[in-house]
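User: Now give one protein:

AI:
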Amino acid sequence: AYMVRFPFYHPGSLQAGTGSSGIVASQKSIVIYVKNKINRLESLFTLWYYLEIIVKDMVAGGLVVGASGKGGGYKLCRKPEEYAVGEILELMEGTMAPVACVADKSVVCPRKDSCQTLPMWAEFDELVHNFFYSKKLSDLIK
């Protein structure tokens, strides 16, 4: 059976002579305690729901593999040092390009020749790409 402990309750605290205000205060404490536990459970269920969505995308992208049965779960397909953070971010979030014209190199912007800011955006895109692809998953889990 599941048992909830109430750290604020001490046997004998509701003895005769403490008055009804002690009982009301204890009841309020119990209600607050239970509400906090329920909020924590709701947060965990919400987190679990989003993790399931994220993990499905990671399985589809070939980053992790699922294992069924006892002791099942998910595991990495490669060693952590073989995963670039940029690879994970792009799989989960899409392109990290700051503007559409540098996101897809196969699309030629009609204003490419006259755009004064394109070189800046291209340089910025390269900086972001190089930064995240130089970081490995193993760097984050040390």
Observations:
- The radius of gyration is 27 Å.
- The mean pLDDT is 80.
- The beta strands are 64-67, 73-76.
- The helical segments are 20-60, 85-93, 100-103, 118-134, 137-140.
